[in-house]
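ok here's Carbohydrate ABC transporter substrate-binding protein, seq below lol
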Amino acid sequence: MRSTSNTIGTRRTVKAAATLLAGALALSLTACGSDDDKSGGSDSSTGSKESGGTLTLPKLDGTTLEVAAVWTGTEQANFKKVLAEFEKRTGAKITFVPAQDPIINFLGSKIAGGSPPDVAMLPQPGAIKQAADKGWAKPLGAEAQAELAKNYSQGWQDIGKVGDKQYGVYYKAANKSLIWYNAKVFENAGASDPATWKDLLTTAQTVYDSGVTPFSIGGADGWTLTDWFENVYLSQAGPEKYDQLAQHKIKWTDPSVKEALTTLAQVWGKKDWVAGGASGALQTEFPASVTQTFTGGEQPKAAMVYEGDFVQVNIADTKSKVGTDAKVFPFPKVGDTAPVVSGGDAAVILKDSKGAQALATFLASPDAAEIQAKLGGYLSPNKNVDVSVYPNEVQQTIAKALVAAGDDFRFDMSDQAPQAFGGTPGKGEWKDLQDFLKNPTDVAGIQAKLESDAAAAYGN
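and the structure came out like this:
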């Protein structure tokens, strides 16, 4: 079974990012906004006027490509604008192929049918390794590797490697250590931004006493629950234990896991603190968990929702403004240090061709990233992206912190795991934590189930 030993050494805590983010989020935030995309010039061998880029791309008239990703809604629409710029500059034609989770299974069926997409956006390092091990993924060519080396820290390059070969371009990143809140609810309740887990519990009680349910949880999507766990675990158990658990070098029956689950139960175990209770949360998908926090005037279904910087895409759907209607604070520290967990999506070539290699090169460039960055709800690990293109101060601050951290970050634990354990709806960690949300008193039982599923997936 898969191992994460080729990349784990680069995944360190983002202490610098946490400090930057905490300080900047205390500032007065500007409203979230996005201008219409203005595509660049017609000469395919020059940079885009949209981004000010200078990347040279080949002429690809007559070339057709397919790009698969699990993205939907606004996220998909914004990415299609990036693909449209590539089409304009090269003459290629690209079809976006909507994929289902787990995307590795979706790709398997496409490959078995003889029609794999040219490029796939893979959300887990584990999926990249599976694709490489199966011979599906093709290594990046010299031009794509050169663009990647120019624009990315070594840590972000290494996450896309399997052994000594570069397969992935991490086009999209995420800071998954943020809690967003309805500013009017907090104002009415007299609640304040918490810095510690204890403070968070106090804030939640204050909000509850004002007549609003504290938390919205998108429990129908198991990945949101793994993110909750990872933030608590990283802060409480520390980075060394986090790495050990990510590699299954310690068992899920370890006392540190018990402590983290017990801490989580302080929120998940209070049915009146979760919108709809456990049963309601388990029927709430991630987008709805956000929108129900920012609709309903002064009586929304919940006051707070946990998730990454990409929440802004869904906040925008409610017509709420970041900085006035919707505000954010860093995930409170449970131990000595506030956690910062990163995630991301990598472009991986499945059909090696001049067109696919050119697209991977483009996605590794600031030219591509700056198009989507200005639309909001997106974060790039590309260090040469001009942070001023992000549409609001929150996004600009998070982007600066990510770049300033360099190789100092911890990648999403479940995304490092084999897909069967950390990335499959209705199975493994996703299902086990859904069961825990349903019954947060059964810590030992869930630990045993997590360990059984992990051992089967890791093969140890």
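fwiw Confidence is low (pLDDT under 50) at residues 1-17, 26-52. kinda neat tbh
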